[in-house]
Amino acid sequence: MRTHHLARPTALAAALLATALVAPAAAAAPVGTADDGAGVVINEAYLSGGSANAAYTHKFVELFNPTDEAVSLDGWSLQYRSATGESTPHGLTELTGTVAPGGHFLISGGSNGDNGADLPTADVVAGGGFNPSGSRGTIVLAETDTRLSLPTGSIIGVENVADVLGYGATNTYETAPATAPSGNSDPKSLNRAEGVDTDDNSADFKLSGSVTPTSSTGAGEEPGDGGEPGDGEEPSGPAVEVEIAEIQGEGARTPLAGERVKTRGVVTAAFPSGGLDGFFIQTPGTGGDMESSASHGVFVYAPTLVSEVAVDDYVEVTGTATEYYDLTQVDATSGAVSVLDEPAEAVKPLTGPWPAADTEREKFESMLWQPEGDWYVGDNYSLNQYGEVGLVFGESDLVAGERLLPQPTDVAPAGSELATAVAVENAQRSITLDDGSTTDYVRNNAAKGSPLPYLDADTPIRVGAEATFTAPVVLHYGFGEWRFQPQEQVTGADHPAVPASFSDTRTKAPAEVGGDVKLASFNVLNYFPTTGREFVDELGGNCSWYTDRDGAPVTTNRCNPNGPRGAADTENFARQEAKIVAAINALGADVVSLEEIENSAAFGKDRDFALATLTAALNEDLGSDAWAFVPSPAELPADEDVIRTAFIFKKAAVKPIDESVILTDSDAFSNAREPLAQAFQAKHGNADTRFLAIVNHFKSKGSDPKDGSGNADSGDGQGAWNAARVGQAEALVAFADGLKRERNTEKVFLTGDFNSYTQEDPMQVFYEAGYANLGAKTEHTYLFAGLVGSLDHILGSEAATATVTGSAVWDINADEPIALEYSRYNNNVTDFYAADPYRASDHDPAIVGIEAPAAGGGNSSAAWEKSATYRAGDTVSHAGAEFDALWWTRGEEPGSRAYGAWAERGESLACAAVGDASAWTSTAVYHGGETVVFEGRAFEAKWYSRNQAPGGAWGPWAPAGDC
Q1: Under a CB-based contact definition with an 8 Å cutoff, are residues 575 and 833 in contact?
Q2: Signal peptide: which range, if any (predicted)?
Q3: Which residue from 287, 328, 360, 803 has the fewest beta carbons nearer than 10 Å?
Q4: Which is more confident, 868 or 506?
């Protein structure tokens, strides 16, 4: 395994404060052989050169030759294809030169800016001709200088392909894509983890905060460098007897690197299973509230001997002092471990304040620790895969009331001093609670039969939950970050080694927001009634799948051409729909804007098919016809995405005014979903209760473009396509301004998934235009890379904001473990699925309350005036009754025509059969589903009618009981 030479991740914090990183020395060569004929493999890829936090100014790819023969690269090339590309790669760099046996070869690429140190002299300088995305894509080492025609999916064994690195959400890879950096501002590189090419990118490459470019002139090992523990020659001669603190030294690296040592200690944790293959020891009697300049604990790598020891044993260890990915350890693979009979003073867990600085944590590396103070769950995304729980210590000193790790651009403008300081503080407050193993519960089929650590269906570990440590843990460093390890491997939620308990922060409903009408926004996570199986079997498409542990498809991975993005089949769709329905019906909203719902027109169906399907499911769940959807307008964009936005509403609370409108004439939305607008009015309110809602789904932050459009990720934390989102915000403001006049209201709400955190540039456009963000400062709708923030917003114009009575985010999705999502059904032996609201999506819904009093409730409608002009939705009083205008009218007296412009409101009557209901009136319009009272009996409308009295045997009304 590669050994890295940068100091601990204080480098990240330093980079955020504009401190340059020092170029590392050459790395040790990986061991093993490649699976392909030529043997040369991609060994490291650094894809964020020049960005904020970057270690180096330029991107690079490092090759390695694990064979004992030189390999000529003449006629070879390095090629790059975007994550969604299906044609020949658009990036190609011709290679020339030779890679020596056991040697490296460095290819430098493009740059995103001026941050970072200069690369070592590269063997080939590709420059801007090789400029891959920092977060997803496919890099191909080709045995030809001709652009390859590559299939999608796993491409093992393709002709003229020497090696492939697919990373992030890409469509081309070996077996499965490698985990990618979160974006250009993430300074990690992709490193070949074990030096052996197993033809599985996800297993072969790991993210590392230590970046080690090595050219053909920079290969070789340095004293103390090691690959996999146990690799290399064991030092000869007698071992020197030392204390553990002498092995650790007072710096980040052992001063005895490469020396044979003998030491004694008490076993504090042991891991004979799970992949750690070793145990921790600590000097007897140390710990407690002690101060120290060097740690008194150390990890012993002893895969064949670890089963011979147990926690609390007093042991003597002989081995080689080494650094393994910046963890000081004793490698006892060729050494000895003896359990001693003599007594030893017990080890005491460390207590005291949690150290923020790496230099302070280093003093306690590998020691037993009893965490105290306030700890919170900050991240649970990796719990489903690696059994990890991200923890956060205390509250932020920079963001009042914030217990979690905020996205810097959610609380401060991009590039500001505060944003930089928040990023640094986030690193200081975070640590990972591990499970005592390196097990991958997603890709290791055997592991899927073992219960996930810490988690069960009844006690979810939610982001924001309080963590209380009930047992000590060991302070460990691995995979580029500080970790708490339990004293033995944890499997399942009730394992005796579980060192912490977690509070249950679930709620059954959002916080009360008040108001007469409640408006919400909900991203429904690719709700597609058109399943992948239907697309393949009936529509002639093709799909790849994400599968469960039995290999059965659960969700679509990729369906071509432009196919569905949701459930694989009807069974999995039913699971998805049940959770979404439960969430929306418990939300308490009267109007809900929807994002990521299927645009059914893409599959030759009515555009509203999916919307109607969801509405019917909501009503079936309630056992009533409470919900309706806003139909698509007549005028639609010429070219739409396969996902769309929409509105649903409760008929008893509001009524739509006029037809909905989509912005169809703006180039700003050529890469996003066009805004959809609809005016609503309180069901029993006058025109003063009217408001305009516009739902949005802006361009996402991924798919970093390299086309010179100005949309590349600049590294300031806002992601790719920021300029596009700014343009979309500007177009939306103009669209809303025009609709205010057309819909005769100043009350405008902008809702949806803006793919922009609260203080980013697109949001500033709205604030400058007079819109207020109605979300609470310490609430969030999204979790990404352990950081929380809001991509989903409800904004109000000045007039709209004046009517808002409260706002809330219902944290049912982003805070929940992904294991509970329908898409992870049967991924593990533990069944986490439930048809409840929790983890119905990956975004949390937001909701606001709006004042909209009924007519006559202190805001009575104005008297009808013959000379006045009225528009659809206007309400007047006349002859002791209330009337709603159905369309534009002037001079027509309300009630004078049965089929005229005015519909009389029926008074509210008490009825034993149905509760309160409106009296039937001859001029009202009924669409089906409404309940009325007529001549002492209740009736329900079966279909559209007007001026047809209830009671006829064959008419539009069904009896509903006597009053």
Answers
A1: yes
A2: 1-28
A3: 360
A4: 506
CATH fold for the domain made of 240-368: OB fold (Dihydrolipoamide Acetyltransferase, E2P) (2.40.50)
- Position of tokens 């955020």? 16
- Contact between 150 and 160 under an 8 Å Cβ cutoff? The reply is no
Q: Write the CA distances from 523 to 440, 460, 594, 763, 792, integer angstroms.
A: 29, 22, 6, 19, 8
The number of beta carbons lying within 10 Å of the beta carbon of residue 395 is 15
Query: Which neighbouring-strand residues pair with 493?
Result: none
Looking at domain 517-528+588-608+619-850, its CATH superfamily turns out to be Endonuclease/exonuclease/phosphatase (3.60.10.10)
> How far apart, in whole angstroms, are the C-alpha atoms of residue 874 and residue 870?
6
Taking the CA atoms of 855, 860, 866 and 870 in sequence, report the sign of the dihedral they define: negative
pLDDT at 857: 46
3-state per-residue secondary structure call for 464-513: CCEEEECCCEEEEEECCEEEEECCCCCCCCCCCCCCEEECCCCCCCCCCC
Q: 869-962: which CATH topology?
A: Seminal Fluid Protein  PDC-109 (Domain B) (2.10.10)
Looking at residue 699, its pLDDT comes to 97
With cut-offs at 50, 70 and 90, classify the pLDDT of residue 5: very low
Helix, strand, coil share (%) of the chain residues, nearest 5: 15, 30, 55
Mean pLDDT of 946-963: 89
SS3 of 211-258: CCCCCCCCCCCCCCCCCCCCCCCCCCCCCEECCHHHHHCCCCCCCCCC
DSSP class of 449: G
> What is each CA distance from 468 to 68, 372, 435, 817, in whole angstroms?
54, 8, 16, 19
In 3D space, the residue among 462, 461, 467, 460 whose CA is nearest the CA of residue 392 turns out to be 467
CB 598 within 8 A of CB 531: no
Q: Does position 278 have pLDDT exceeding 90, yes or no?
A: yes
Q: Using a pLDDT cut of 90, give the percent of the chain over it.
A: 66
Max Cα separation, the chain? 111
Higher pLDDT, 863 or 298: 298
Among 162-176, 750-764, 882-896, the range with the most confident prediction by mean pLDDT is 750-764
For residue 804, report the phi and psi dihedrals to the nearest 5 degrees.
-80, 130
Residues 232, 226 contacting (CB under 8 angstroms): yes
CB 531 within 8 A of CB 567: yes
**Residue 35 pLDDT exceeds 60:** no
Give pLDDT, residue 469.
98
Amino acid at 162: A
- Considering the domain 10-208 in this protein, what is its CATH number? 2.60.40.1260
CB-based contact 304:335 (threshold 8 Å): no
**Residue 723 — φ and ψ, nearest 5°?**
-60, -40
Contact call for residues 188 and 4 (beta carbons, < 8 A): no
Give the model's confidence band at 917: pLDDT under 50 very low, under 70 low, under 90 confident, else very high.
Answer: confident
User: CA-CA distances (angstroms) from residue 735 to 61, 665, 694?
Assistant: 46, 10, 9
- CA–CA separation, 397 vs 405, rounded Å? 11
Confidence of residue 222 (pLDDT cuts 50, 70, 90): very low
pLDDT at 844: 98
Pairwise CA distance, residues 406 & 425, whole Å = 10
pLDDT value at residue 860: 56
